[in-house]
Design a protein that fits this description.
The complex is a heterodimer of chains A (403) and B (183). Chain A is mainly β and 403 residues long. Chain A has helices at residues 6-21, 35-47, 129-136, 387-391, and strands spanning 52-56, 63-72, 91-99, 108-115, 124-127, 142-151, 154-162, 170-177, 188-190, 201-202, 207-208, 214-220, 226-232, 238-244, 250-257, 263-269, 278-282, 290-292, 305-308, 314-318, 327-333, 341-348, 356-363, 369-375, 379-385. Helices cover 10% and strands 40% of the residues of chain A. Classes of the chains: A mainly beta (403), B mainly alpha (183).
Protein backbone atom coordinates (compact mmCIF):
# COMPACT_ATOMS: atom_id res chain seq x y z
CA UNK A 1 0.00 0.00 0.00
CA UNK A 2 1.40 3.34 -1.00
CA UNK A 3 1.83 5.79 1.78
CA UNK A 4 -0.67 8.61 1.27
CA UNK A 5 2.05 11.24 0.86
CA UNK A 6 4.57 9.15 -1.02
CA UNK A 7 3.39 10.01 -4.58
CA UNK A 8 3.21 13.71 -3.72
CA UNK A 9 6.71 13.62 -2.24
CA UNK A 10 8.06 11.88 -5.35
CA UNK A 11 6.34 14.46 -7.54
CA UNK A 12 7.74 17.32 -5.45
CA UNK A 13 11.27 15.88 -5.72
CA UNK A 14 10.88 15.41 -9.49
CA UNK A 15 9.49 18.92 -9.84
CA UNK A 16 12.34 20.44 -7.87
CA UNK A 17 14.92 18.54 -9.93
CA UNK A 18 13.21 19.61 -13.16
CA UNK A 19 13.16 23.25 -12.06
CA UNK A 20 16.83 23.16 -11.10
CA UNK A 21 17.93 21.62 -14.38
CA UNK A 22 15.48 23.21 -16.83
CA UNK A 23 17.08 25.72 -19.14
CA UNK A 24 16.69 29.40 -18.42
CA UNK A 25 18.74 31.04 -21.15
CA UNK A 26 19.49 34.72 -21.24
CA UNK A 27 17.26 37.02 -23.22
CA UNK A 28 18.63 36.51 -26.73
CA UNK A 29 20.73 39.10 -28.52
CA UNK A 30 22.51 38.62 -31.80
CA UNK A 31 26.28 38.79 -31.40
CA UNK A 32 27.70 41.97 -32.87
CA UNK A 33 31.33 42.21 -33.98
CA UNK A 34 33.74 44.38 -32.10
CA UNK A 35 33.45 47.90 -33.60
CA UNK A 36 37.18 48.44 -34.17
CA UNK A 37 37.60 45.03 -35.81
CA UNK A 38 34.48 45.59 -37.91
CA UNK A 39 35.84 48.94 -39.12
CA UNK A 40 39.13 47.31 -40.14
CA UNK A 41 37.25 44.54 -41.94
CA UNK A 42 34.98 47.01 -43.72
CA UNK A 43 37.97 49.01 -44.95
CA UNK A 44 39.78 45.88 -46.06
CA UNK A 45 36.79 44.55 -48.01
CA UNK A 46 36.30 47.92 -49.72
CA UNK A 47 39.97 48.09 -50.70
CA UNK A 48 39.95 44.79 -52.62
CA UNK A 49 40.09 45.38 -56.38
CA UNK A 50 37.31 44.18 -58.65
CA UNK A 51 37.91 40.54 -59.50
CA UNK A 52 36.03 37.36 -60.28
CA UNK A 53 37.21 33.79 -60.68
CA UNK A 54 35.64 30.41 -60.59
CA UNK A 55 36.69 26.80 -60.13
CA UNK A 56 35.09 23.40 -59.79
CA UNK A 57 35.22 21.31 -56.67
CA UNK A 58 36.36 17.69 -56.97
CA UNK A 59 33.75 15.30 -58.37
CA UNK A 60 34.13 11.91 -56.71
CA UNK A 61 30.56 10.85 -57.61
CA UNK A 62 28.29 11.18 -60.66
CA UNK A 63 25.84 13.37 -58.72
CA UNK A 64 26.43 16.18 -56.19
CA UNK A 65 24.06 18.62 -54.53
CA UNK A 66 23.43 21.04 -51.67
CA UNK A 67 26.88 22.41 -50.86
CA UNK A 68 27.71 24.27 -47.67
CA UNK A 69 30.70 26.53 -47.17
CA UNK A 70 32.50 27.92 -44.11
CA UNK A 71 35.76 29.62 -43.32
CA UNK A 72 38.05 27.86 -40.86
CA UNK A 73 39.28 30.64 -38.61
CA UNK A 74 42.86 30.14 -37.45
CA UNK A 75 43.26 29.89 -33.71
CA UNK A 76 40.24 31.93 -32.81
CA UNK A 77 37.79 31.24 -30.06
CA UNK A 78 35.09 33.34 -31.65
CA UNK A 79 34.37 34.12 -35.30
CA UNK A 80 35.69 37.64 -34.84
CA UNK A 81 38.08 39.44 -37.14
CA UNK A 82 41.64 39.89 -36.00
CA UNK A 83 44.52 41.61 -37.76
CA UNK A 84 46.98 38.86 -36.85
CA UNK A 85 44.80 36.33 -38.66
CA UNK A 86 46.05 37.81 -41.94
CA UNK A 87 49.27 35.86 -41.59
CA UNK A 88 47.38 32.67 -42.28
CA UNK A 89 45.98 32.03 -45.75
CA UNK A 90 42.19 31.93 -45.97
CA UNK A 91 41.06 28.35 -45.42
CA UNK A 92 37.61 27.39 -46.67
CA UNK A 93 35.85 24.11 -46.10
CA UNK A 94 32.96 22.88 -48.23
CA UNK A 95 30.70 19.85 -47.91
CA UNK A 96 27.91 18.43 -50.06
CA UNK A 97 26.06 15.18 -50.56
CA UNK A 98 27.02 13.00 -53.48
CA UNK A 99 26.33 9.56 -54.89
CA UNK A 100 24.71 7.98 -57.92
CA UNK A 101 21.65 10.30 -57.50
CA UNK A 102 19.83 12.27 -54.81
CA UNK A 103 18.30 9.96 -52.21
CA UNK A 104 20.21 6.85 -53.35
CA UNK A 105 21.62 4.41 -50.81
CA UNK A 106 25.18 5.21 -51.91
CA UNK A 107 24.91 8.91 -51.08
CA UNK A 108 27.54 10.12 -48.62
CA UNK A 109 28.67 13.49 -47.36
CA UNK A 110 31.90 14.73 -48.95
CA UNK A 111 34.26 17.44 -47.81
CA UNK A 112 36.95 19.42 -49.58
CA UNK A 113 39.31 22.15 -48.35
CA UNK A 114 40.51 25.23 -50.17
CA UNK A 115 43.41 27.52 -49.31
CA UNK A 116 43.79 30.96 -50.86
CA UNK A 117 45.75 30.89 -54.11
CA UNK A 118 45.46 27.11 -54.35
CA UNK A 119 42.95 24.70 -55.82
CA UNK A 120 40.45 22.55 -53.98
CA UNK A 121 41.96 19.53 -52.28
CA UNK A 122 40.70 16.04 -53.18
CA UNK A 123 37.26 15.27 -51.74
CA UNK A 124 37.03 13.16 -48.63
CA UNK A 125 34.02 11.07 -47.57
CA UNK A 126 33.12 12.33 -44.08
CA UNK A 127 29.82 10.55 -43.46
CA UNK A 128 28.43 7.44 -45.09
CA UNK A 129 24.96 6.01 -44.61
CA UNK A 130 26.38 3.05 -42.69
CA UNK A 131 28.52 5.30 -40.50
CA UNK A 132 25.49 7.46 -39.69
CA UNK A 133 23.47 4.32 -38.85
CA UNK A 134 26.21 3.15 -36.48
CA UNK A 135 26.71 6.52 -34.81
CA UNK A 136 23.00 7.27 -34.48
CA UNK A 137 22.08 3.70 -33.50
CA UNK A 138 19.29 3.30 -36.04
CA UNK A 139 18.45 2.50 -39.61
CA UNK A 140 19.37 5.38 -41.96
CA UNK A 141 17.82 5.25 -45.42
CA UNK A 142 19.46 8.33 -46.89
CA UNK A 143 21.57 11.36 -46.10
CA UNK A 144 20.79 14.92 -47.09
CA UNK A 145 21.79 18.57 -46.73
CA UNK A 146 24.99 19.21 -44.79
CA UNK A 147 25.63 22.55 -43.11
CA UNK A 148 28.84 23.96 -41.63
CA UNK A 149 28.74 26.52 -38.87
CA UNK A 150 31.94 28.09 -37.54
CA UNK A 151 32.03 28.38 -33.77
CA UNK A 152 34.47 29.33 -31.10
CA UNK A 153 37.48 27.11 -31.80
CA UNK A 154 35.52 24.45 -33.62
CA UNK A 155 33.34 23.63 -36.57
CA UNK A 156 29.83 22.24 -36.37
CA UNK A 157 28.53 19.93 -39.05
CA UNK A 158 24.76 19.62 -39.13
CA UNK A 159 23.26 17.18 -41.59
CA UNK A 160 19.93 15.71 -42.54
CA UNK A 161 19.16 12.00 -42.30
CA UNK A 162 16.06 10.00 -43.14
CA UNK A 163 15.17 6.63 -41.63
CA UNK A 164 11.88 6.10 -43.48
CA UNK A 165 10.02 7.87 -46.26
CA UNK A 166 11.04 10.98 -48.17
CA UNK A 167 12.61 14.26 -47.10
CA UNK A 168 9.54 15.04 -44.98
CA UNK A 169 10.72 12.25 -42.68
CA UNK A 170 14.06 13.93 -41.99
CA UNK A 171 15.79 14.65 -38.73
CA UNK A 172 18.89 16.75 -38.14
CA UNK A 173 22.13 15.55 -36.60
CA UNK A 174 25.19 17.33 -35.36
CA UNK A 175 28.87 16.56 -35.28
CA UNK A 176 31.80 18.78 -34.32
CA UNK A 177 35.47 19.13 -35.17
CA UNK A 178 38.13 20.96 -33.22
CA UNK A 179 40.90 20.54 -35.80
CA UNK A 180 39.46 22.41 -38.74
CA UNK A 181 37.46 19.51 -40.12
CA UNK A 182 40.17 16.81 -40.16
CA UNK A 183 38.36 14.63 -37.62
CA UNK A 184 34.66 14.70 -36.86
CA UNK A 185 33.19 13.55 -33.57
CA UNK A 186 30.45 10.88 -33.74
CA UNK A 187 27.17 12.43 -34.78
CA UNK A 188 24.29 12.97 -32.41
CA UNK A 189 20.65 13.36 -33.25
CA UNK A 190 18.84 16.56 -32.28
CA UNK A 191 15.22 16.07 -31.16
CA UNK A 192 13.12 18.87 -32.57
CA UNK A 193 9.72 17.32 -33.22
CA UNK A 194 7.35 15.38 -30.92
CA UNK A 195 5.98 13.08 -33.60
CA UNK A 196 8.64 10.39 -34.04
CA UNK A 197 11.10 13.34 -34.35
CA UNK A 198 9.90 13.71 -37.93
CA UNK A 199 10.58 16.45 -40.38
CA UNK A 200 13.21 18.96 -39.41
CA UNK A 201 15.74 19.87 -42.06
CA UNK A 202 18.61 22.29 -42.20
CA UNK A 203 20.06 24.21 -45.10
CA UNK A 204 21.29 27.74 -44.33
CA UNK A 205 23.83 28.88 -41.71
CA UNK A 206 22.96 30.02 -38.23
CA UNK A 207 23.51 33.29 -36.41
CA UNK A 208 25.52 33.48 -33.18
CA UNK A 209 23.96 35.02 -30.12
CA UNK A 210 25.84 37.06 -27.55
CA UNK A 211 25.60 34.33 -24.87
CA UNK A 212 27.37 31.79 -27.11
CA UNK A 213 24.20 30.03 -28.22
CA UNK A 214 23.43 29.52 -31.88
CA UNK A 215 20.27 30.57 -33.68
CA UNK A 216 19.76 28.00 -36.41
CA UNK A 217 17.19 28.45 -39.17
CA UNK A 218 15.60 25.09 -40.00
CA UNK A 219 12.42 24.02 -41.75
CA UNK A 220 9.59 21.52 -41.44
CA UNK A 221 7.92 19.61 -44.29
CA UNK A 222 5.46 17.09 -42.81
CA UNK A 223 1.77 18.20 -42.80
CA UNK A 224 2.85 21.83 -43.13
CA UNK A 225 5.85 23.46 -44.81
CA UNK A 226 7.25 26.29 -42.75
CA UNK A 227 10.47 27.78 -41.41
CA UNK A 228 11.53 27.35 -37.81
CA UNK A 229 14.14 28.90 -35.59
CA UNK A 230 16.10 26.75 -33.15
CA UNK A 231 18.27 28.12 -30.39
CA UNK A 232 21.04 25.68 -29.47
CA UNK A 233 23.54 25.89 -26.65
CA UNK A 234 27.25 25.29 -27.44
CA UNK A 235 26.79 21.54 -26.81
CA UNK A 236 23.90 21.27 -29.24
CA UNK A 237 21.07 21.14 -26.69
CA UNK A 238 17.91 22.82 -27.85
CA UNK A 239 17.07 25.86 -25.74
CA UNK A 240 14.11 27.16 -27.69
CA UNK A 241 12.16 26.67 -30.86
CA UNK A 242 10.04 29.22 -32.68
CA UNK A 243 7.92 28.90 -35.75
CA UNK A 244 8.14 31.33 -38.67
CA UNK A 245 4.47 31.73 -39.53
CA UNK A 246 3.80 32.47 -43.20
CA UNK A 247 0.70 32.55 -45.34
CA UNK A 248 2.32 30.30 -47.96
CA UNK A 249 4.26 27.07 -47.77
CA UNK A 250 7.89 28.04 -47.24
CA UNK A 251 11.21 26.26 -46.82
CA UNK A 252 14.90 26.89 -46.13
CA UNK A 253 15.06 30.24 -44.34
CA UNK A 254 18.26 32.24 -44.91
CA UNK A 255 18.75 34.61 -42.00
CA UNK A 256 20.88 37.75 -41.64
CA UNK A 257 21.11 39.69 -38.37
CA UNK A 258 20.94 43.45 -38.85
CA UNK A 259 21.67 44.45 -35.25
CA UNK A 260 21.41 42.91 -31.78
CA UNK A 261 17.64 42.42 -32.03
CA UNK A 262 16.65 42.59 -35.67
CA UNK A 263 17.09 39.95 -38.33
CA UNK A 264 15.54 39.25 -41.71
CA UNK A 265 14.88 35.91 -43.36
CA UNK A 266 14.45 35.10 -47.04
CA UNK A 267 12.57 31.85 -47.66
CA UNK A 268 12.07 29.52 -50.57
CA UNK A 269 8.47 29.65 -51.79
CA UNK A 270 7.04 26.15 -51.93
CA UNK A 271 3.43 27.17 -52.41
CA UNK A 272 1.22 26.86 -55.50
CA UNK A 273 0.95 29.39 -58.33
CA UNK A 274 3.28 32.33 -58.84
CA UNK A 275 6.23 31.85 -56.53
CA UNK A 276 8.31 34.69 -55.10
CA UNK A 277 11.02 34.91 -52.46
CA UNK A 278 9.13 35.01 -49.14
CA UNK A 279 10.19 37.23 -46.29
CA UNK A 280 10.10 37.15 -42.50
CA UNK A 281 11.49 39.42 -39.79
CA UNK A 282 12.25 39.30 -36.09
CA UNK A 283 12.64 42.29 -33.78
CA UNK A 284 13.45 40.32 -30.62
CA UNK A 285 16.44 38.25 -31.71
CA UNK A 286 14.41 35.30 -32.96
CA UNK A 287 11.87 34.88 -30.16
CA UNK A 288 9.03 35.78 -32.53
CA UNK A 289 8.93 36.04 -36.30
CA UNK A 290 6.50 38.06 -38.39
CA UNK A 291 5.67 37.36 -42.01
CA UNK A 292 6.64 40.18 -44.33
CA UNK A 293 5.37 40.77 -47.83
CA UNK A 294 6.98 38.61 -50.49
CA UNK A 295 9.86 40.27 -52.32
CA UNK A 296 9.44 40.99 -56.03
CA UNK A 297 11.87 38.22 -56.93
CA UNK A 298 10.55 35.15 -58.77
CA UNK A 299 11.42 31.91 -57.03
CA UNK A 300 10.92 28.56 -58.80
CA UNK A 301 10.61 26.68 -55.49
CA UNK A 302 14.38 26.78 -55.11
CA UNK A 303 16.87 27.51 -52.36
CA UNK A 304 18.01 31.05 -51.57
CA UNK A 305 21.26 32.15 -49.92
CA UNK A 306 21.66 35.54 -48.28
CA UNK A 307 24.47 37.26 -46.35
CA UNK A 308 25.20 40.72 -44.99
CA UNK A 309 28.25 42.28 -46.65
CA UNK A 310 30.82 44.44 -44.83
CA UNK A 311 29.51 47.55 -46.58
CA UNK A 312 26.12 47.06 -44.91
CA UNK A 313 24.29 45.81 -48.00
CA UNK A 314 22.62 42.41 -48.32
CA UNK A 315 23.62 39.96 -51.03
CA UNK A 316 21.33 37.20 -52.24
CA UNK A 317 22.07 34.31 -54.57
CA UNK A 318 19.04 32.60 -56.10
CA UNK A 319 17.24 31.50 -59.26
CA UNK A 320 15.19 34.65 -59.97
CA UNK A 321 13.18 33.20 -62.83
CA UNK A 322 9.81 31.50 -62.91
CA UNK A 323 9.54 27.77 -63.24
CA UNK A 324 13.11 26.49 -63.51
CA UNK A 325 16.55 26.64 -61.98
CA UNK A 326 18.56 27.30 -65.15
CA UNK A 327 19.72 30.77 -64.13
CA UNK A 328 21.71 31.60 -61.00
CA UNK A 329 22.04 35.28 -60.16
CA UNK A 330 23.21 37.68 -57.50
CA UNK A 331 20.90 40.39 -56.17
CA UNK A 332 21.76 43.17 -53.80
CA UNK A 333 19.82 45.33 -51.40
CA UNK A 334 21.02 48.51 -49.73
CA UNK A 335 17.81 49.05 -47.70
CA UNK A 336 17.86 45.98 -45.45
CA UNK A 337 16.06 43.79 -47.93
CA UNK A 338 13.11 46.00 -48.87
CA UNK A 339 14.14 46.33 -52.52
CA UNK A 340 16.55 44.26 -54.56
CA UNK A 341 18.56 44.88 -57.70
CA UNK A 342 19.94 42.21 -60.01
CA UNK A 343 23.70 42.77 -60.09
CA UNK A 344 25.08 39.72 -61.85
CA UNK A 345 23.94 36.59 -63.63
CA UNK A 346 26.48 34.01 -62.58
CA UNK A 347 25.38 31.25 -64.90
CA UNK A 348 22.43 30.43 -67.13
CA UNK A 349 21.40 27.96 -69.80
CA UNK A 350 18.69 27.94 -72.48
CA UNK A 351 17.87 24.37 -71.46
CA UNK A 352 15.13 24.43 -68.81
CA UNK A 353 16.35 21.12 -67.40
CA UNK A 354 19.78 22.48 -66.55
CA UNK A 355 20.20 23.41 -62.92
CA UNK A 356 22.43 25.93 -61.14
CA UNK A 357 20.98 25.86 -57.67
CA UNK A 358 21.35 25.55 -53.92
CA UNK A 359 23.77 28.45 -53.49
CA UNK A 360 25.80 29.08 -50.34
CA UNK A 361 27.52 32.41 -49.71
CA UNK A 362 30.18 33.65 -47.29
CA UNK A 363 32.44 36.67 -47.05
CA UNK A 364 35.84 35.66 -45.71
CA UNK A 365 37.93 37.68 -43.28
CA UNK A 366 39.85 39.40 -46.09
CA UNK A 367 36.58 40.64 -47.57
CA UNK A 368 36.47 38.28 -50.56
CA UNK A 369 33.05 36.77 -51.26
CA UNK A 370 32.64 33.08 -52.05
CA UNK A 371 29.70 31.37 -53.68
CA UNK A 372 29.31 27.62 -54.11
CA UNK A 373 26.38 26.02 -55.91
CA UNK A 374 25.11 22.85 -57.51
CA UNK A 375 26.25 22.67 -61.12
CA UNK A 376 23.90 20.58 -63.28
CA UNK A 377 23.61 18.13 -60.36
CA UNK A 378 26.96 16.76 -61.50
CA UNK A 379 29.26 18.80 -59.32
CA UNK A 380 29.78 21.81 -57.10
CA UNK A 381 31.15 25.07 -58.53
CA UNK A 382 32.92 27.82 -56.61
CA UNK A 383 32.87 31.48 -57.64
CA UNK A 384 35.05 34.05 -55.88
CA UNK A 385 34.59 37.80 -56.23
CA UNK A 386 34.80 41.10 -54.39
CA UNK A 387 32.51 43.96 -53.42
CA UNK A 388 34.20 46.16 -56.04
CA UNK A 389 33.25 43.61 -58.71
CA UNK A 390 29.65 43.78 -57.54
CA UNK A 391 29.75 47.59 -57.56
CA UNK A 392 30.66 47.71 -61.27
CA UNK A 393 28.45 45.08 -62.81
CA UNK A 394 28.61 46.18 -66.43
CA UNK A 395 25.77 44.33 -68.15
CA UNK A 396 24.26 42.25 -65.33
CA UNK A 397 22.41 39.98 -67.74
CA UNK A 398 25.54 38.46 -69.23
CA UNK A 399 26.57 35.27 -67.43
CA UNK A 400 30.02 35.56 -65.92
CA UNK A 401 30.85 31.87 -66.06
CA UNK A 402 31.57 30.64 -69.62
CA UNK A 403 29.16 27.97 -70.85
CA UNK B 1 -12.49 -7.61 -3.41
CA UNK B 2 -8.99 -7.20 -4.80
CA UNK B 3 -6.36 -6.07 -2.38
CA UNK B 4 -2.81 -5.06 -3.33
CA UNK B 5 -1.58 -8.41 -1.96
CA UNK B 6 -3.75 -10.59 -4.11
CA UNK B 7 -3.12 -8.28 -7.08
CA UNK B 8 0.57 -9.11 -6.73
CA UNK B 9 -0.15 -12.82 -6.36
CA UNK B 10 -2.42 -12.82 -9.38
CA UNK B 11 0.47 -11.67 -11.55
CA UNK B 12 1.87 -15.20 -11.50
CA UNK B 13 -1.33 -16.75 -12.85
CA UNK B 14 -0.83 -18.93 -15.92
CA UNK B 15 -2.47 -16.64 -18.57
CA UNK B 16 -0.27 -13.75 -17.50
CA UNK B 17 2.86 -15.90 -17.52
CA UNK B 18 1.94 -17.05 -21.02
CA UNK B 19 1.38 -13.46 -22.16
CA UNK B 20 4.75 -12.45 -20.79
CA UNK B 21 6.48 -15.32 -22.54
CA UNK B 22 4.91 -14.14 -25.81
CA UNK B 23 6.15 -10.58 -25.17
CA UNK B 24 9.63 -11.87 -24.33
CA UNK B 25 9.70 -13.99 -27.49
CA UNK B 26 8.66 -10.98 -29.59
CA UNK B 27 11.29 -8.86 -27.85
CA UNK B 28 13.97 -11.40 -28.75
CA UNK B 29 13.04 -11.09 -32.44
CA UNK B 30 14.35 -7.51 -32.56
CA UNK B 31 17.88 -8.78 -31.97
CA UNK B 32 17.86 -10.82 -35.19
CA UNK B 33 20.30 -9.33 -37.75
CA UNK B 34 18.76 -7.97 -40.92
CA UNK B 35 21.22 -6.69 -43.49
CA UNK B 36 23.90 -4.70 -41.74
CA UNK B 37 21.78 -3.97 -38.66
CA UNK B 38 19.72 -5.82 -36.11
CA UNK B 39 15.95 -5.47 -36.46
CA UNK B 40 15.75 -3.23 -33.39
CA UNK B 41 17.59 -0.47 -35.23
CA UNK B 42 14.88 -0.45 -37.90
CA UNK B 43 12.22 -0.21 -35.18
CA UNK B 44 14.21 2.47 -33.35
CA UNK B 45 14.66 4.42 -36.59
CA UNK B 46 10.90 4.71 -36.72
CA UNK B 47 9.74 5.13 -33.14
CA UNK B 48 12.79 6.95 -31.72
CA UNK B 49 12.91 7.30 -27.93
CA UNK B 50 9.74 6.37 -26.09
CA UNK B 51 8.69 8.51 -23.16
CA UNK B 52 9.39 7.28 -19.61
CA UNK B 53 5.61 7.18 -19.15
CA UNK B 54 5.31 4.52 -21.85
CA UNK B 55 8.19 2.48 -20.49
CA UNK B 56 6.96 2.63 -16.88
CA UNK B 57 3.42 1.70 -17.89
CA UNK B 58 4.76 -1.13 -20.01
CA UNK B 59 6.85 -2.57 -17.17
CA UNK B 60 3.99 -2.24 -14.68
CA UNK B 61 1.64 -3.95 -17.13
CA UNK B 62 4.27 -6.62 -17.78
CA UNK B 63 5.12 -7.24 -14.13
CA UNK B 64 1.75 -6.73 -12.45
CA UNK B 65 -1.01 -7.06 -15.03
CA UNK B 66 -3.90 -7.20 -12.54
CA UNK B 67 -2.47 -4.28 -10.62
CA UNK B 68 -2.11 -2.35 -13.86
CA UNK B 69 -5.73 -2.98 -14.87
CA UNK B 70 -6.94 -2.16 -11.37
CA UNK B 71 -5.02 1.13 -11.47
CA UNK B 72 -6.25 1.95 -14.96
CA UNK B 73 -9.87 1.40 -13.86
CA UNK B 74 -9.41 3.55 -10.76
CA UNK B 75 -7.39 6.44 -12.12
CA UNK B 76 -8.02 6.35 -15.84
CA UNK B 77 -11.74 5.80 -16.34
CA UNK B 78 -13.10 5.99 -19.86
CA UNK B 79 -13.91 9.69 -19.80
CA UNK B 80 -10.45 10.69 -18.54
CA UNK B 81 -8.74 8.41 -21.05
CA UNK B 82 -10.81 9.93 -23.86
CA UNK B 83 -9.88 13.47 -22.78
CA UNK B 84 -6.21 12.49 -22.56
CA UNK B 85 -6.26 10.89 -25.98
CA UNK B 86 -8.02 13.84 -27.62
CA UNK B 87 -5.54 16.21 -25.96
CA UNK B 88 -2.65 14.22 -27.41
CA UNK B 89 -4.20 14.21 -30.89
CA UNK B 90 -4.74 17.99 -30.78
CA UNK B 91 -1.21 18.46 -29.45
CA UNK B 92 0.35 16.55 -32.35
CA UNK B 93 -1.84 18.21 -34.97
CA UNK B 94 -0.79 21.67 -33.72
CA UNK B 95 2.85 20.71 -33.22
CA UNK B 96 3.10 19.43 -36.79
CA UNK B 97 2.18 22.83 -38.15
CA UNK B 98 -1.60 23.15 -38.36
CA UNK B 99 -1.80 26.81 -37.42
CA UNK B 100 0.70 29.24 -35.96
CA UNK B 101 0.59 27.90 -32.37
CA UNK B 102 3.21 25.29 -31.50
CA UNK B 103 2.56 23.73 -28.07
CA UNK B 104 5.72 21.60 -28.37
CA UNK B 105 7.89 24.74 -28.18
CA UNK B 106 6.76 25.20 -24.56
CA UNK B 107 8.55 22.03 -23.55
CA UNK B 108 12.06 23.45 -24.03
CA UNK B 109 11.71 26.10 -21.31
CA UNK B 110 8.93 24.23 -19.56
CA UNK B 111 7.88 26.63 -16.83
CA UNK B 112 4.26 26.81 -17.97
CA UNK B 113 4.06 23.01 -18.34
CA UNK B 114 5.56 22.49 -14.87
CA UNK B 115 3.09 24.99 -13.40
CA UNK B 116 0.22 23.18 -15.10
CA UNK B 117 1.35 19.78 -13.83
CA UNK B 118 1.77 21.17 -10.31
CA UNK B 119 -1.72 22.63 -10.37
CA UNK B 120 -3.10 19.27 -11.51
CA UNK B 121 -1.29 17.45 -8.71
CA UNK B 122 -2.63 19.89 -6.08
CA UNK B 123 -6.12 19.29 -7.47
CA UNK B 124 -6.01 15.56 -8.14
CA UNK B 125 -3.16 13.84 -6.32
CA UNK B 126 -5.49 12.40 -3.65
CA UNK B 127 -7.68 10.65 -6.20
CA UNK B 128 -4.85 9.74 -8.59
CA UNK B 129 -1.79 8.80 -6.50
CA UNK B 130 -0.26 6.51 -9.12
CA UNK B 131 -0.51 9.14 -11.87
CA UNK B 132 1.10 11.62 -9.47
CA UNK B 133 3.89 9.14 -8.84
CA UNK B 134 4.29 8.56 -12.57
CA UNK B 135 4.55 12.30 -13.25
CA UNK B 136 7.13 12.65 -10.48
CA UNK B 137 9.25 9.90 -12.07
CA UNK B 138 8.89 11.54 -15.50
CA UNK B 139 10.12 14.85 -14.12
CA UNK B 140 13.05 13.19 -12.36
CA UNK B 141 14.06 11.44 -15.59
CA UNK B 142 13.71 14.76 -17.45
CA UNK B 143 16.03 16.36 -14.88
CA UNK B 144 18.56 13.57 -15.50
CA UNK B 145 18.17 14.07 -19.27
CA UNK B 146 17.34 10.37 -19.43
CA UNK B 147 16.38 10.25 -23.11
CA UNK B 148 17.86 12.19 -26.01
CA UNK B 149 15.37 15.02 -25.92
CA UNK B 150 15.63 18.44 -24.26
CA UNK B 151 11.87 18.86 -24.37
CA UNK B 152 9.68 18.00 -21.35
CA UNK B 153 6.76 16.88 -23.52
CA UNK B 154 8.87 13.98 -24.82
CA UNK B 155 9.13 12.69 -21.25
CA UNK B 156 5.38 12.81 -20.64
CA UNK B 157 4.00 11.03 -23.69
CA UNK B 158 4.80 9.95 -27.23
CA UNK B 159 2.93 8.89 -30.37
CA UNK B 160 3.14 5.19 -29.46
CA UNK B 161 1.37 5.90 -26.16
CA UNK B 162 -1.25 7.89 -28.06
CA UNK B 163 -1.83 4.98 -30.43
CA UNK B 164 -2.05 2.42 -27.60
CA UNK B 165 -4.39 4.71 -25.66
CA UNK B 166 -6.54 5.13 -28.77
CA UNK B 167 -6.73 1.34 -29.25
CA UNK B 168 -7.65 0.89 -25.59
CA UNK B 169 -10.63 3.17 -26.16
CA UNK B 170 -12.15 1.25 -29.03
CA UNK B 171 -13.75 -1.64 -27.10
CA UNK B 172 -15.15 0.40 -24.19
CA UNK B 173 -16.56 2.98 -26.57
CA UNK B 174 -18.15 0.28 -28.72
CA UNK B 175 -19.77 -1.42 -25.72
CA UNK B 176 -20.82 1.96 -24.34
CA UNK B 177 -22.55 2.68 -27.64
CA UNK B 178 -24.16 -0.77 -27.65
CA UNK B 179 -25.57 -0.26 -24.15
CA UNK B 180 -26.98 3.12 -25.14
CA UNK B 181 -28.56 1.63 -28.27
CA UNK B 182 -30.16 -1.19 -26.26
CA UNK B 183 -31.59 1.14 -23.60
Amino acid sequence: MLNRWFPTIVFAVGLLAAILTATLPERPQFAEPDKAAAAVATGRAAALPARFSWSDLPRPTPSAHAATLAEVLPGTRLPVLKVEDDKEPVHLIAAWFGGSREGAADVSLYQSDWYANASWLPAREIMTRQQAADELGRNIRKLGNPLFVTESGRLHLFFVSVSYGGWAGSAINRSTSTDGGKYWQPAQRIVTSPFFNLSTLVRNPGVWLSDGSLGLPVYHEFVSKHGEWLRLDPEGRVLAKNRMPMLRATLQPAVVALNSQQAVAALRDSGPGENQVQWSETHDAGQTWQAGSARAIPNPNSAVAMIGLRDGSLLMACNPIGGNRNQLSLLRSSDQGSTWTLVRVIEQSPNDRDEFSYPALIQDRTGAIHLVYTWLRRGIRHAQFTQAWLNNPGNPNVPVVPQ
Amino acid sequence: MKTPDNLLLSSIRLPYVRNRLIVLALSAVVFIPWGDLILWRYVYGFINDLSPTTWIMFFVWFGFPDGFHFWAREELPLKRRLILWLSMVIFYVLALGSGPFDPYAYGYQPWAVLAGLSAWVVWRSRSAPCLTLLLGLDLAIFALHGIGSDNLWDYLFDPVLMIVLGISLIRPLMSHRKIRTQS
